[in-house]
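Sorry to interrupt, but I need a hand with the structure work. Can you supply me with one protein entry, sequence and fold together? No commentary is needed, just the two lines. Leave the record below and I will have a look.
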Amino acid sequence: MPSLPLIDLTSDPFALFAAWMSDAEASEPNDPNAMAVATSTPDGRPSVRMLLLKGADERGFVFYTNVESRKGGDLLANPHVALLFHWKSLRRQIRIEGPVTQVSDEEADAYFASRSPMSRLGAIASDQSRPLDERSTFEERLQAAEEKYGNGPIPRPNNWTGFRVAPDAIEFWQDRPFRLHDRALWTRDGSEWNVTRLYP
């Protein structure tokens, strides 16, 4: 892969994120919006998992989950996260850190309604992250939900919503030959962004 130009330090970080995401959507074979989401308990025990980004604008980066899951419990107790996007085909990474807030009920309802019916039923049937005695128990609950709602509307469960990460730091990482990588860090100071290039 040819060496790419250095990261433009005059870029708006949200515009640069959108450009890199667009490149990923054109090159990544599966889930270009996949990201690692790291949370922590109040006493500092970290946990990380892969999720899908479901919204991004100047307000922040949105994902959805069951608030009674492990990550949901972490977020309610310690509302700070770190996100990591890694696009292997592009040899790029973006790291994002910041506090989270829940999205509005209207936003959560709209996104939930856009999901496939089976995904919505799964959210109702699943006690996410909790022990499951055997797979058939979950499948029975899924079938019961399917029978209950039939072809009618499938309501969003109260314990299922979205979180928006309002970034206070965004780092862009671009591979370069011999591990002489290009890194640039944007940090928020009130409504302003400060940017600096970092050593590889």
Q: What stands out?
A: The mean pLDDT is 94. The radius of gyration is 19 Å. The chain is about 30% helix and 35% strand. The first strand starts at residue 34 and ends at 40.
